[in-house]
């Protein structure tokens, strides 16, 4: 393994001498690090990979849909039929989310609940 580290260092130093790291996006700016402290350790890598691929885990997608439906329901000024339909859809999404969390053993995870609350706050802000 030491040879691989040495080889990597040699390649990096060579690229620096050639100026290949100049004018990179974000050059001279602080790194924007993600705070993943609220994500359970065993989920961090998979969530990061999915995020980089532009995907959301189903439970987060369901939370986003629930937040959207809650906002629509709160803003609904039309007839009782539309409110009832929105309420029905919201109930279905919440039941699916509860079942999914139960199946994955996340319904009792305090860290996952805290992370979910952080996601909900961000969705409400956006």
TrEMBL record:
InterPro entries: DnaJ_C_subfamily_28 (IPR052573), DnaJ_homolog_subfam-C_membr-28 (IPR018961). This is DUF1992 domain-containing protein. Residues 7-74 form the DnaJ homologue subfamily C member 28 conserved domain. Pfam families: DJC28_CD.
């Amino acid at each position: 393994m030491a040879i691989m580290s040495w080889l990597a260092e040699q390649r990096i130093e060579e690229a620096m001498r050639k100026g290949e790291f100049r004018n990179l996006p974000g050059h001279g700016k602080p790194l924007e690090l993600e705070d993943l402290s609220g994500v359970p350790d065993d989920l961090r890598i998979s969530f990061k990979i999915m995020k980089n691929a532009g995907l959301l885990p189903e439970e987060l997608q369901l939370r986003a849909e629930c937040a959207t439906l809650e906002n629509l329901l709160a803003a609904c000024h039309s007839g009782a039929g539309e409110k009832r339909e929105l309420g029905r859809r919201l109930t279905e999404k919440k039941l699916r989310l509860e079942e999914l969390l139960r199946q994955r053993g996340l319904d009792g995870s305090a860290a996952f609940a805290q992370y979910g609350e952080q996601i909900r706050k961000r969705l409400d802000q956006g």
